[in-house]
Design goal:
Residues 59-135 form the Transcription factor NikR nickel binding C-terminal domain. Pfam families: NikR_C (PF08753). Belongs to the transcriptional regulatory CopG/NikR family. InterPro entries: Acetolactate_synth/TF_NikR_C (IPR027271), ACT-like_dom_sf (IPR045865), Arc_rbn_hlx_hlx (IPR013321), CopG/NikR_regulator (IPR050192), Ni_resp_reg_NikR (IPR022988), Ribbon_hlx_hlx (IPR010985), TF_NikR_Ni-bd_C (IPR014864). By secondary structure, the chain is an alpha+beta fold. The chain folds into two domains: 16-46; 53-136, Alpha-Beta Plaits, CATH 3.30.70. 32% of the residues lie in helices and 26% in strands. The protein has four helices and four strands; from the N terminus they run ααβαββαβ.
Length: 154
């Protein structure tokens, strides 16, 4: 929030037990007051992929957990990732145990395409969890393949 942005006060009504739980939670998270915590909750709610326009350009992650023993699932996931290679910036694969893998796809593209990829992963037999988490990206930002200098490059 910029210094010049006008703050607007408004009231919220909640059951006593809910506000007590909320106060404990925000205290544990280190918030100085309810307003800071509510602003962060609001920002987070606005950044859910379901609240964004399909053509917005975003960056984020698709996190999935799957059973790698399910017939052809690893191959199917790899083929799907190749199909969406323009949207996938990076991947991380972690073996959770003998049966389960956690995979994180760092993605960038139109919300609609990223949702489509997440949904195609979610419905595969053996995938226990697949979630898309996004944040805004400036429409005019350079693509991930664009080179830009950093102070250490000088």
């Amino acid at each position: 929030m910029s210094e010049k942005e006008v703050l607007v006060r408004f009231g919220i009504s909640m059951p006593q037990s809910l506000i007590e739980q909320y106060d404990r939670l925000i205290a544990e998270q280190g918030y100085g007051n309810r307003s800071e915590a509510i602003r962060d909750l609001t920002r987070k709610a606005l950044l859910t992929s379901s609240g964004m326009q399909p053509e917005e350009t975003v960056a984020g992650t698709i996190v999935m957990v799957y059973d790698h023993h399910i017939s052809d699932l690893p191959i199917t996931l790899m083929e799907l990732q190749h199909e969406y290679h323009h949207a996938i910036i990076s991947t991380m694969h972690i073996h959770l145990n003998h049966q389960q893998c956690l995979e994180i796809l760092v993605v960038r593209g139109k919300v609609q395409k990223l949702r489509e990829l997440q949904q195609r992963i979610q419905v595969l037999k053996g995938v226990g969890y697949a979630e898309l988490s996004v944040t805004h990206v400036d429409e005019h930002a350079p693509s991930h393949g664009h080179h830009h200098s950093h102070p250490q490059d000088s």
